């Protein structure tokens, strides 16, 4: 099993550009989440999904969109990148009320 | 809304010293509790978890944590740290209503040889 995979590992964008961060898991987990990690702030929940076709907002959803068309994939879209979105993004998945497994992260810089 | 507080932001210890990192959470109901570790340049890995039962839980690499319900605390301990324990440690909770984690701000541990 590959677990949770994320692409790309690094990305540099200019302000106003859009892009999609990819996340996939092969553990058949019904729950998936996106977090951003910023120094001194821990990880903050952006969006999460409780199953295919069902998503909900976390603590910091503004500027991001998600969709979940399959159990395996949970892409995160930045509609119009801003410097405040410079961060490290982690995708995670879990089965039920249980521990989450994390991907390796995407380091995003917005100039 | 639930929240998690980690009071120690940066801890510096010498090898063989004992470690205790504080974690307090606010939530009125039952939660699952976790400690994750992030080694430099790596993603998060689970150290240990508490769901129910014995409030003293043991995890990997000699770490343990104690759940004290009356204090809403879940402190992480290790009797003797090693240089390889240098990392950032995150406390997190998961409530039944949402299958995602709420994290504390993290504690950066630096172990000096």
Question: In terms of topology, how is this protein built?
Answer:
The complex is a heterodimer of chains A (111) and B (113).
Chain A: E1 4-7, E2 10-13, E3 19-25, E4 31-38, E5 42-51, E6 54-57, E7 64-66, E8 76-78, E9 87-94, E10 101-102, E11 106-110
Parallel strand pairs in A: 2-11
Antiparallel strand pairs in A: 1-3, 3-8, 4-5, 4-9, 5-6, 7-8, 9-10, 9-11
Chain B: E1 3-5, E2 10-14, E3 19-21, E4 24-26, E5 32-38, E6 45-50, E7 56-58, E8 64-68, E9 73-78, E10 87-94, E11 102-103, E12 107-112
Parallel strand pairs in B: 2-12
Antiparallel strand pairs in B: 1-4, 3-9, 5-6, 5-10, 7-8, 8-9, 10-11, 10-12
Descriptive keywords:
heterodimer; A: 111 residues; mainly beta; 7-stranded mixed sheet; 11 strands; 0% helix; 52% strand; globular; B: 113 residues; 6-stranded mixed sheet; 4-stranded antiparallel sheet; 50% strand
Shape of chain B: globular
> Strand content of the residues of chain B, in percent?
over 45%
Strands of chain B, total number: 12
Question: What is the arithmetic mean of pLDDT of chain B?
Answer: 93
State the helical fraction of chain A: under 10%
Major sheet of chain A, described briefly?
Answer: 7 strands, mixed
Structural class of chain B: mainly beta
Number of strands of chain A: 11
Counting H and I runs of at least 4 residues, what is the number of helices of chain B?
Answer: 0
Could you state the order of secondary-structure elements of chain A as H and E?
Answer: EEEEEEEEEEE
**Main sheet makeup of chain B:** 6 strands, mixed
Measured between the Cα atoms of the first and last residue of chain A, the distance is 36 Å
| Percent range for β-strand residues of chain A | over 45%
What is the alpha-carbon Rg of chain A in Å? Answer: 13 Å
